[in-house]
Design goal:
Number of helices: 5
Distance between the termini: 24 Å
Helix content: 40-55%
Radius of gyration: 14 Å
Amino acid sequence: MSRSKKKAENLPWGLLEENDWRILKDLFSTAPDCAKFLSRRIGLELEETMRRLRELENTGFLERVEGRFLKKKGLRRPKHMNHTYYELSRPARLHLRRLLFEER
């Protein structure tokens, strides 16, 4: 068994609620983003989204994006990060990729 697969299995996947899954799937498909735009896309209150992002970060599903500029899909030039941006941790991204592509 590979190291990243073991790390993904060590994450507490059974504790996730439906809205946590929505956040993870959205970040998987859209790349790093901040709570403000994420909450708009998935239809959650901003405070609820921020709380869930912190919990997901504390449990190892998410990581904060380091740096001052972010290069995102669909943008002609890098975006200046005025907020805290989150992205999936490597183990979470690999596990989600496997789950989402097995569904098809």
